[in-house]
Design brief:
heterodimer; A: 360 residues; 70% helix; B: 357 residues; Rossmann fold; six-stranded parallel sheet; globular
């Protein structure tokens, strides 16, 4: 009979191995799914994982990986700090939107004036926009004990309405023939978050994501706040005795994750996306939750996980186009990744043993 | 010796010919904003793609990607199609406009066709349909059929496309029924069954017995069916499964003929950048079968209207028409110009309520 025995200590080996095993299991079962759909599974897996990196057109797709991965990493880093402390910000999507709206609004307020300080101001405004939106659930939780999961999630829908309103009214392009959407920041030099080196995909958002990874690593391993975050998550009672003030930690964690999500939104709207539009947000804030867990809430893990998710998106679109795989199959494939990760997580905390059933 | 030379050159010619045929296979890409199974907007574009496959068989290869978000994702998908040798790419959502222009700059030898936008380039055409002509037919039926004299309208976003539709439907409903009144709910979505159902219910509660929609799901049809004695019209696709009642007719987007013609133009080398805005006459806007729930005389009036719009003897915006604030817009017999229609941002006289902006 198969039994699960709780490990006295979480297994370090399994903790590192599960993401890899999960990826392999996803390839295996995803391959089966593709085979059932009548596609060559090996070719499908190769198209998704290999072609964007080493295929014929990799010169184009590699920079795209940075473009797609940077917002995921930036948001996931912020979320991971809170998740480690048991503070659940589910509304990064809304904070991402608010960062984009506020940042773009500051830039557009200067249009068509050109000056070096416009983009830095937009960056600050973007971070503040995301931070302020995250402060709503933070304040309500600290003051009234509301559930931050619900409040932050509901605020996503409000942010989406504000986004529609911005696209149709206060940020609408006056030269847009009445169509929704703001001016395109890509054609406004002072506000354009261009590639730092043309064609590399390396824009300021990618730089910010890398800085955030290092910053989070140092914070968690070298700083008192990082210790408090970990302690609160792992042993809340001990944290209390150690003098951790929960209210301050809530404000801090939600604030950082909101600001980083806002930054991600600003870098996106001023760079790759270019304009505030009704459908500006494409789910980075929600996907980042998967990225954070796939990366084991560890900064470097998140970096790798963000890259992997970006790969499945880009490879998935290539597979649709070249192999005729339906979009839904690609989504199932991505879902499998999280499913296997969570399922295999069991092995970190439990040992599987085979034992004879004793006859009573 | 001669014979061998002959054979060799024949074989070479054949080889060259087959090689040329393989290279001649025209590759056409389609970028979709929704899933092909949405039953509305994207579904109809994919029907258009299938029409291309049917028309040219082995001479074309079509590829498509569904659920492509507007913005950088769409730019990447278009670039990928262009890199992989597409000759012609249809980008089927308004939000793909700037990405289409960006990618077109990088691939001057690839032709692009952007739906519903206004920016063109030497290798970028735009195309859209005069859906407001369909709305005129719809308004004629709605005005005749309503008993409460209240017609409910589910607007998506307050943009010219939608406002044109509301105005056209209102003008023609009013023409056959001077007491008619429009109630408009803005759903602020193109596709959200839950929101659309709520909007339909609110309108029905306010006394509407006709529901017109500019959103793409069948949820309003279901809500009308549940309420009973309310009629609806299919939007974007036929939605025939809700006939003969509540769905009494529909406006169908028929992209097939256009897609076939443009693919043919690429094959002939006659492709040029154009701005196409076709209506019922060219077959881009189809009117779905008018069901038996509509009395014969009303059906005839609707078909007469359709025929007049198709042969160009009647324009859906023919004066006298005043703007909502009472100021004159079109004099008696004057017809609207395309520029005003393209940027239409006002209601016509008689419609209550403001355009949110």
């Amino acid at each position: 009979m198969i039994r699960l025995e709780k490990r006295p200590q979480p297994s370090r080996a399994w903790s590192l191995a599960t993401p890899l095993v999960a990826v392999l299991a996803t390839m295996l079962f995803g391959g089966l799914l593709f085979a059932v759909l009548g596609k060559d599974p090996v070719e499908a897996i190769r198209t998704i994982f290999w072609d964007p990196l080493f295929g014929e057109y990799a010169f184009y797709f590699r920079p795209q990986l940075l473009v797609k991965g940077a917002p995921l990493v930036l948001i996931a880093i912020g979320l991971s700090l809170g998740f480690k402390a048991g503070i659940w910000n589910i509304g990064a999507e809304g904070q991402y939107i608010m960062g984009a709206i506020v940042g773009a609004a500051v830039g557009l307020a200067f249009y068509p004036y050109e000056a070096w300080y416009i983009f830095p101001l937009m960056v600050i405004a973007g971070a503040l926009g995301g931070w302020a939106w995250a402060m709503i659930p933070a304040f309500l939780k600290v003051r009234f004990g509301t559930n931050e999961i619900l409040v932050s999630l509901m605020l996503v829908y409000i942010a989406e309405q504000l986004l529609a309103s911005a696209s149709l009214r206060f940020l609408k392009n006056p030269e847009g023939m009445g169509f929704p959407g703001s001016r395109n920041l890509q054609s406004y030099e002072s506000a354009f978050n261009a590639d730092l080196i043309e064609g590399t995909g390396m824009h300021w958002g990618v730089v910010a994501a890398l800085i955030a990874v290092i910053f989070a690593y140092v914070l968690l391993t070298r700083h008192m706040i990082g210790f408090h975050i970990r302690l609160t998550g792992e042993a809340p009672r001990a944290a209390k005795f150690a003098g951790v003030k929960p209210a301050r930690l809530i404000l801090l964690c939600l604030g950082i994750s909101g600001a980083l999500a806002g930054l991600a939104g600003l870098f996106e709207v001023s760079g790759p996306a270019g304009q505030v539009s009704i459908d500006f947000n494409v789910g980075y804030g929600f996907t980042a939750i998967i990225v954070a867990f796939l990366g084991r809430l560890h900064p470097f893990g998140i970096l790798l996980a963000g890259g992997l998710m970006a790969l499945t998106y880009i490879g998935g679109d290539i597979a649709q186009s070249n192999l005729g795989l339906p979009a839904a199959a690609i989504q199932v494939f991505q879902g499998m990744l999280l499913f296997f990760l969570l399922a295999l997580d069991l092995l970190t905390n439990f040992r599987v043993t085979l034992r004879k059933v004793e006859v009573a | 010796m001669k014979l061998t030379t002959l054979l060799t050159s024949a074989a070479m010619a054949l080889g060259l010919a087959t090689g040329a045929v393989a290279a001649d296979k025209t590759k056409v890409g389609f970028v979709y904003v929704g899933p092909v199974g949405d039953g509305g907007w994207t579904y109809e574009h994919d029907q258009g793609r299938k029409a291309v496959v049917e028309a040219f068989g082995d001479k074309v290869e079509t590829v498509y990607v569904e659920n492509v978000a507007e913005g950088p994702d769409s730019e990447r998908v278009m670039t990928q199609m262009a890199l992989e040798g597409a000759d012609l790419i249809f980008t089927t959502s308004f939000g793909y406009m700037d990405p289409t222009i960006n990618v077109a700059k990088k691939f001057p030898n690839v032709r692009f066709e952007h739906a519903t936008g206004y920016k063109t380039a030497p290798n970028v055409s735009t195309y859209s349909a005069r859906f407001y002509e369909g709305r005129a037919v719809q308004g004629t039926i709605a005005g005749n059929m309503t008993e409460s004299n209240i017609i409910g309208y589910i607007g998506s976003y307050p943009i010219p496309e939608v406002i044109r539709g509301i105005n056209s439907a209102y003008i023609h409903a009013k023409k056959v029924n001077p007491d008619v009144q429009f109630k408009i709910v803005w759903a602020f979505t193109w596709f959200d069954p839950a929101k659309e159902a709520d909007a339909a219910k609110v309108l029905i509660e306010q006394g509407a017995d006709v529901i017109l929609q500019h959103t793409d799901s069948t949820a309003p049809q279901a809500a009308a069916q549940a309420a009973g004695n309310v009629i609806t019209f299919g939007q974007a696709s036929d939605m025939a499964e809700y006939g003969p009642k509540p769905r009494v007719s529909s406006i169908i987007d028929d992209w097939g003929p256009y897609y076939v013609a443009r693919t043919q133009a690429v094959m002939d080398g006659s492709w040029e950048s154009v701005m196409t805005w076709d209506g019922i006459g060219a077959g881009m806007v189809g009117i779905g079968e008018i069901s038996d729930a509509v009395p014969a005389d009303v059906k005839e009036a609707a078909l007469t209207m359709k025929a007049a719009l198709a042969d160009g003897s009647y324009h859906a915006f023919t004066g006298p028409i005043n703007k909502q604030d009472g100021s004159a817009w079109l004099a008696d017999g004057e017809t609207a110009d395309d520029g005003t229609l393209a940027g239409m941002n006002f209601f016509v006289e008689g419609i209550e309520g403001d355009i949110p902006q």
